[in-house]
Amino acid sequence: MKEVLIAASPRQALGKGSARKIRATGQIPGVMYGPEIEPMPILVPEAEFRKAYRASAGTSTIFTLNVNGKPNKVIIREMQRDPITSRITHLDFHAISMNRPIHIQVPVHLVGTPIGVKAEGGIMQTLLREIEISCLPTNIPEHVEVDVTNLGIGDSIHVRDVTIPNVDVLTESSSTIVVISAPTIIKVETPAVEAVQVEGAEGAAPAEGAEGAPAAAAAAPGEAKKEEKKDEKEKKGKEKG
Question: What are phi and psi of 111, to 5 degrees?
């Protein structure tokens, strides 16, 4: 468990307009609440908080929030960000009792390179990045370490495979943390090449009017009927004459 000190001060002005002015001065508006204290609006220096957050394990860290010189053990319950700039716009701190269990999300850290990736060309898929636990604040781990070195293609690690001392795991035991999948093979079909007849090649069909070509094939059916009608007219004319 890591503890990080942050200085804070009470916040008097409330509302969206005042929150924008507060952020413009380099501070983050927030609130501190818990089962043993009344909700308290506070201000946290942005630069100091960013430095402390980078040095910590994040949301699983216990922070000591000094408000007017009074220390409060807190964890971060919610951290709101601007959707465009990702700048922190609001902080929710939950004041905790060191003698009561709390529910908290602990980050998962994968260690090693799987055999299935290094030697077999597989793909490692991380499906769970945090595990929810319940424990006393003094037993909160900074992270849950999961060794993936011996995983081959088709192998996986579930929550039930991980041991976390002195805590109750709340995440479903059958939840998959990581799995090694087989590489995706894309088959490319080769288009069929059409045969092209070349003039003079053996077996090529004779051109129209060439020697040996059937005469009847060259005549269209409509032309044949016209010839028959013409012959009939000429025959009738001769008989009348």
Answer: -120, 135
